[in-house]
Amino acid sequence: MRRSAQLIDLLRLFLARPSDWLHGYDITNRLGISAGTLYPLLARVEREGWFEARWEESTTRGRPPRRCYRLTSTGARLAAQFIAERPIAGRRAAPLRTES
Amino acid sequence: MKVPTQGLLRLLTVMTPVEARVHLASMMNEIEYVPDRDRTAWRLAAVATWLRAVFGALTANRVAWSALVAGGALAGGLDVRLATRLPYVVAMMLFSAALCAQWPVRSWRWIVTLPLVLPVQVWLTGNWGPYQFDRLDAFYGIVPALAGGWFGGWVGRRERRPHAIAE
Predict the structure, then answer these.
(1) Which residues in chain A have their CB less than 8 angstroms from residue B32's CB?
(2) Which of A71, A99, B41, B150 is deepest in the core (most CB within 10 A)?
């Protein structure tokens, strides 16, 4: 998989909470990246089998289901290896934002 | 404005290549949970994601596009040089049929773009040939391309049916 700073941040975020299901808006908020950057990344990691996704029905009537994402067990192992392999040159890890 | 905007975004989801549809749909649904202040940015991102997915899917096959440009330019060269239209019509049908037979998935791409090669070619070279006085004539390749594409697409899909592969 092609390395990018955003991908590394995304993997770090999920590795920090391996059992949590996260929504797209949560992720953009925590990483400070745009939706246009996030969703192609999610598509890639899900296609590779690193993430699993599910539709979560809304408790509010009339709202569509939300897709949420989580690391798979294989994904967690591969993501940790992937991050450890080689840091992105000249870049410090972005601080992860805490939940609002 | 909520209903038309969301409706248009839903329409984009339907018009998205299958491989990207789930992610675009999840993005569209997420917009409903995004605070108002961020919604415009999310909608723009959804449109940009759709454009990327469509453009990526349409241009992924470089061999096919190269063949299309070469075939279209060859047919166009015949048309500009010869006084009769028959060679161009036959060439368009053959090239369109060949492209659609070889790559029948989203074959409308070849049918739509192949006849555009000639107008682009005469516009770039400045040589309008027989079209000097009726430039719309440069677009008549759409009819043979449609006919050839229909036949080629039928052949290509028939060849790719499971029983055909098993045979």
Answers:
(1) 63-64
(2) A71
